[in-house]
Specification:
Length: 378
């Protein structure tokens, strides 16, 4: 029992002497609680949709679509509506292409005879049915479900019953898309980022403890060159990890990768960038952590932040608007979206604007690391 007390006393003194560790132990749980609370508490809102209203009533002067479109615009926050003025059928084709390009999550078409068919049924002139066409980006089942829910609630609000209405749904991508197929483009960059982050932060702390890093910092070489020296071999490790993950994705989880050789090159390219972003973040944070125990405090904070704010576990549309700027500064937000475009749409390799924020993050963290990296004071 005496030995237990002596060990307890020694460890307690060690913790109390380490002011940086105490600060991290107090701050990290607060940050994690806030991120988890805001990440899981929100509902999916303001999903971008475009309406092409071709309705041209001849039996009455007003369109029956007015109440429904007004509901979608002002009475619900499930969707955020853009309505095309003086639309034509060509606008419908362009709207579908806009969904494919990621500008909208869905497009809604009201046919020319929408009002006339409803009035005909109401007056018992005919028993014809009318259908609203919906073109959905089904790469995220939660978001496409939100659009259908908004339309169903709008029908009830505008007409009180279905009035012979139906929704004809067309999906932008493979109808057999599973939740796993949707999640894998997010899981791959997160896994590489997470492993690279841990490897880099622990490596630099061990190098500092061994005195190797301090010797390098005292040399005439520029700090950026020293950091790049660590970055290159760790990037090779990221490529090996990416290869293992891709093999598991195809053969263990049976997730197909569309787009041929170009798609594989695009996946490797983005996974390497995500791995490098994890490394440079690890380099930067290692300057604030002098021991492994301090470094460990960063790991859950970074992990939960990336999972919840990068659109991996929850859609970005469910986050509060004030958190979105933070989400768009996270490299995994863009990495996951890029890989969804490549893996789900089968586009092959493409130069996409979402590459730029990831590269910018790497460059900024690299510069910050070179500015904050200092040799140990004796």
């Amino acid at each position: 029992m005496r030995m237990t007390w002596l060990v307890t006393k020694r460890v307690s003194k060690f913790i109390l002497r380490d002011k940086r560790l105490i600060a991290l132990m107090l701050i990290v749980p607060v940050v994690m609680s806030l991120v988890i609370g805001y990440g899981f508490s929100g509902a999916i809102k303001n999903v971008d949709v475009v309406i092409v209203n071709l309705d041209n009533p001849t039996l009455i002067p007003l369109s029956a679509t007015n109440n429904l479109t007004n509901y979608l615009k002002t009475q619900t926050d499930l969707v955020s509506v853009t309505e095309i003025s003086f639309p034509t059928l060509q606008d419908w084709n362009e709207s579908k292409q806009a969904v494919l390009d990621g500008e909208y999550k869905g497009a809604i078409l009201f046919p020319e005879d929408f009002t006339d068919t409803l009035i005909g049924r109401l007056m018992n002139i005919s028993n014809d049915h009318t259908s609203i066409e919906v073109y959905l980006d089904n790469s995220n089942p939660q978001i496409s479900g939100n659009i259908i829910k908004a339309l169903s609630e709008g029908f009830q609000f505008a007409f009180g019953s279905n009035m012979g209405l139906s929704i004809t749904t067309e999906f932008a991508f493979d109808e057999g898309l599973t939740q796993l197929q949707y999640m894998m483009p997010s899981i791959l960059p997160f896994a590489v980022f997470f492993m690279s982050f841990i490897l880099s932060i622990i490596s630099l702390i061990n190098e500092r403890k061994a005195g190797t890093l301090d010797l390098l910092l005292l040399s005439p070489y520029r700090k950026v060159n020293i950091i790049l020296g660590y970055l290159i071999p760790l990037s090779a490790v990221s490529i090996i990890q990416a290869t293992i993950l891709i093999i598991l994705t195809i053969f263990a989880f049976n997730v197909p990768i569309l787009g041929g050789a170009g798609a594989y090159f695009a996946i490797y390219f983005m996974l390497l960038l995500c791995g490098m972003s994890g490394m440079v973040l690890g380099f930067f944070l290692s300057t604030f952590a002098k021991t492994e125990l301090q470094a460990i405090q960063f790991i859950p904070m970074i992990t939960f932040t990336m999972l919840l704010l990068a659109g991996i576990l929850v859609p970005l549309e469910s986050l509060p608007r004030w958190l979105l700027p933070i989400s768009y500064m996270i490299p995994l937000t863009h990495g996951a979206e890029y890989l969804r475009t490549v893996m789900i749409e089968g586009t092959g390799f493409l130069w996409h604007w979402q590459i730029a924020p990831v590269v910018a993050f790497i460059v900024i963290m690299l510069l910050l690391s070179s500015l904050t990296l200092r040799e140990k004071k004796i």
